[in-house]
TrEMBL record:
Organism: Parabacteroides johnsonii DSM 18315
Name the UniProt record assigns to this protein: DUF4861 domain-containing protein
Signal peptide: 1-15
InterPro entries hit by this protein: DUF4861
Keywords: Signal
PROSITE patterns: PROKAR_LIPOPROTEIN (PS51257)
Length: 402
């Protein structure tokens, strides 16, 4: 009897264990291999685990890093060849410590910048303290990097260290050359082996910012008013930005909310934009600043992307920028400023993608950048990446949960 009872307990335990296995099958409908692409499932998928901690493992049994996001998604990287599928398992257990790859924060010590990064690229946007100075910087900024670990926080701390700044200030009185050398040794505008900030935004849309149109003129958003960091790694950074009221066709209370997220391994941020108090369908553009006259760009409304190679710097190389659209855009083209506007904005124009924003909906697109010293040796390689990214949006990985 004891033996039968033990067998029943063992069978019952085995059955319980089996019931708590969640199988996630990822299918790739495209012909392109997808490597370390962040995939998401709803947290309802692990309901049968009844709140237990869990691990995700691939088909070799190795643990896979994951993150539970602010909107109750479970995200994790998957790799699946074109036309094939792979299965991942979720089981009860204690996950290994995951390395933080995507992260960011606000820097009140640097006029309220919000800056973020992953293992490929970094970005920043400007805050209320900068707007209070009167400096005009409308778009998103790019910080290039050539190391996979987070480096943005270190750059700020090095650049803004109070003791170093005080020493530079003193040296300028007695030894300007030494002061300059010390300033350059801590500046994030100089590459110290991990990249730098040398992209210029100014009073333009910068690196793929969106804006409403009124009477064919861009209604430039200024710096954000309020921010909230929603996700901060290890695999996704998400920030919610609310802007000061805009005046659009006489309506002086149009408020933009911008949610930006960056995933590990991607060059591209996801933007989700809403405009409160807008009462009618309104044209919206997403733009990349053209710093100089150039033909090294692509604008393809049918395939849903715009892409540009910024002028190459003889020391620091070349920055590449793009925006990609999951929904059809109305038009995509380069628009050159008038001579007066060129002088005002310090740029030649924008590459623009035109869409329409309908009140009560959201406008979603992807925008990001690459660097010639970190994976894209020329603009051709960047354009290939962008085209593939656009195609992958049209052929998303499919997820089956069992």
């Amino acid at each position: 009897m004891k033996k039968i009872f033990s067998l029943l307990l063992a069978a019952s335990a085995f059955a319980c264990t089996q019931e708590k296995v969640v199988e996630i099958t990822i299918s790739n409908p495209s012909a392109t291999d997808r490597t370390n692409e962040i995939t998401e499932i709803t947290s309802d998928a692990v309901a049968k685990l009844k709140g237990e901690t869990f691990v995700i493992s691939d088909n070799t049994g190795s643990q896979v890093p994951y993150q539970v996001t602010y909107d109750n998604k479970i995200i994790f990287p998957v790799s699946v060849k074109g036309g094939e599928n792979v299965t991942y398992k979720i089981t009860p257990g204690t996950p290994e410590a995951f390395k933080t790859i995507a992260c960011g924060k606000q820097y009140p010590e640097r006029v309220d910048d919000v800056a973020w990064e992953n293992d490929r690229i970094a970005f920043r946007t400007y805050g209320p303290a900068l707007q209070a100075t009167g400096e005009k910087a409308y778009g998103c900024d790019i910080w290039v990097k050539c190391v996979s670990e987070p480096i943005v926080d270190m750059r700020y701390k090095t650049e803004l260290d109070p003791e170093t700044r005080a020493k530079i200030s003193e040296l300028r009185k007695t030894d300007p050359k030494a002061a300059q050398q010390l300033a350059e040794s801590v500046s994030y505008h100089i590459d110290h082996g991990n990249g730098l900030d040398y992209y210029k935004v100014g009073p333009t849309l910068g690196a793929g910012t969106s804006a409403l149109l009124a009477n064919d003129s861009i209604v430039y958003p200024y710096c954000y008013k309020d921010y909230q960091i929603l996700d901060n790694g290890p695999l996704r950074f998400t920030v919610k930005l609310v802007y000061h009221p805009l005046t659009v066709k006489g309506n002086d209370n149009v408020i933009e909310t911008r949610v930006i997220s960056l995933d590990a391994g991607s060059q591209m941020n996801k933007y989700t934009i809403t405009y409160d108090n807008l009462t009618e369908a309104t044209p919206v553009v997403t733009g990349i600043v053209l710093h100089e006259p150039s033909e090294d760009y692509q604008a393809d409304a049918a395939k849903g992307y715009i892409a540009y190679a910024d002028p190459a710097d003889p020391v620091n190389g070349q920055i590449y920028v793009a925006a990609v659209f999951p929904e059809k855009v109305n038009e995509a083209k380069a628009v050159i400023f008038s001579d007066k506007e060129k002088a005002e904005r310090g740029a030649d124009g924008h590459v623009l993608a035109y869409s329409t924003y309908s009140p009560g909906n959201s406008y979603t697109y992807y925008s990001g950048a690459g660097w010639s010293k970190w994976g894209f040796e020329n603009s051709g390689k960047w354009f290939e990446y962008v085209q593939k990214f656009a195609q992958n949006l049209k052929e998303p990985l499919t997820v089956t949960i069992k």
